[in-house]
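> call design_seq(struct)
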């Protein structure tokens, strides 16, 4: 069971950093138009879209929804960690 937890934690961390990288790519012009940007968009946008619908941009330009999405992802990982610890121990 600890191996499964390790794999899940690695996958959560990879997705966490994919979101961060995707958000940072938005600061650079035309970076999202290349292969990596499009791939990250296909993987990350389905998760970010519900948060963008709920949280409007501040002043019309600053989007805080990825911050909330990362917080929710971290809370989900902590909840999963607690459940796995309960099941193992």
């Amino acid at each position: 069971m600890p191996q499964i937890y390790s794999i899940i934690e690695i996958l959560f961390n990879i997705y966490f950093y994919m979101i961060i990288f995707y958000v940072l790519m938005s600061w650079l012009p035309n970076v999202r138009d290349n292969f990596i940007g499009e791939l990250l968009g296909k993987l990350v946008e389905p998760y970010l879209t519900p948060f963008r619908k709920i949280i409007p941009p501040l002043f019309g330009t600053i989007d805080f929804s990825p911050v909330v999405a990362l917080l929710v992802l971290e809370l989900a990982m902590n909840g999963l960690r607690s459940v796995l610890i309960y099941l193992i121990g």
